Amino acid sequence: MLSNAWKDYEYTQIIGDVSALSVFNDEAFDIIICHNVLEYIDDKETVVKALARVLKKDGILSIYAKEILMKHIQMVAKYLNLK
């Protein structure tokens, strides 16, 4: 059953740096999963801005990092206009 779960959905996996997102229109994605990435990025703000640009208004952004700091979470909230 689970093997059929994604058959009706388009799935885009992006492997590369943040410039790979430049080919996508604004608000292109319903869900963005960014796991174990930010802790390896020097310019986290640029990455979060790029993710926010391609995320739909009511989209879901999942960021996970083994050692993510609260300031990263606050930065995400700022760019997604969360309160």
Give descriptors for this structure.
Rossmann fold; 20% strand; two-stranded parallel sheet; single chain; alpha+beta; 83 residues; 2 strands; 25% helix
General description of the model:
By secondary structure, the protein is of the alpha+beta class. The chain has two helices and two strands; from the N terminus they run βαβα. A two-stranded parallel sheet has the order 1-2. Strand 1, helix 1 (44-54) and strand 2 form a beta-alpha-beta unit. The relative contact order is 0.18. The mean pLDDT is 80.
Say what the CATH topology is: Rossmann fold
- Give average pLDDT, whole number: 80
Low-confidence stretches: none
What is the percent of helical residues?
25-40%
Major β-sheet annotation: 2 strands, parallel
Q: Assign the structural class, choosing from mainly alpha, mainly beta, alpha/beta, alpha+beta, or little secondary structure.
A: alpha+beta
CATH architecture: 3-Layer(aba) Sandwich
> Which percent band covers the strand fraction?
15-25%
What's the order of the H and E elements? EHEH
Number of domains: 1
